[in-house]
């Protein structure tokens, strides 16, 4: 990119001036949504510390449909190495819950005792941390891909108006969209750096 090292003058177009060409607010919201989804993915799937919340999102299939584990069982932490899922309220779903935990991809091996499911938490190895850090990077790259799609969609949208508005306006708009995408990318890189540091300890 040209102009590396020198601060690029930031463009700031009044959204009202260009609302019949493109809704910049919407573009911005779409970009923010990509960042939020990445944050959510990080906190939900890429954590070394296991808390009762780590099992919340596990979905189990019951004869009545799909439910998150935390709606059917009470999840508590007995010790850093042990989570307990109490299925007393829905004993008939104990087997489904056990299967869902085992197949969650979290490397867990639940043990059933009546309606109580004990979930021993494996010790976190260096290798596991490094794998999580790799996944965080993959996740970020996927999000950047999604961000590029939002940017392209917006740029294609403004190009439809090339016969109706001045080239300058289109150029400025494109620059503004690129700026929003750059800001979002920088935000993702920050999230990834913080996450990697947390994972690798």
From TrEMBL:
<dbReference type="InterPro" id="IPR036191">
    <property type="entry name" value="RRF_sf"/>
</dbReference>
<dbReference type="GO" id="GO:0005739">
    <property type="term" value="C:mitochondrion"/>
</dbReference>
<feature type="domain" description="Ribosome recycling factor">
    <location>
        <begin position="38"/>
        <end position="200"/>
    </location>
</feature>
<dbReference type="InterPro" id="IPR002661">
    <property type="entry name" value="Ribosome_recyc_fac"/>
</dbReference>
<keyword id="KW-0648">Protein biosynthesis</keyword>
<dbReference type="InterPro" id="IPR023584">
    <property type="entry name" value="Ribosome_recyc_fac_dom"/>
</dbReference>
<keyword id="KW-0809">Transit peptide</keyword>
<dbReference type="GO" id="GO:0043023">
    <property type="term" value="F:ribosomal large subunit binding"/>
</dbReference>
<protein>
    <recommendedName>
        <fullName>Ribosome-recycling factor, mitochondrial</fullName>
    </recommendedName>
</protein>
<keyword id="KW-0963">Cytoplasm</keyword>
<comment type="similarity">
    <text>Belongs to the RRF family.</text>
</comment>
<keyword id="KW-0496">Mitochondrion</keyword>
<dbReference type="Pfam" id="PF01765">
    <property type="entry name" value="RRF"/>
</dbReference>
<dbReference type="GO" id="GO:0006412">
    <property type="term" value="P:translation"/>
</dbReference>
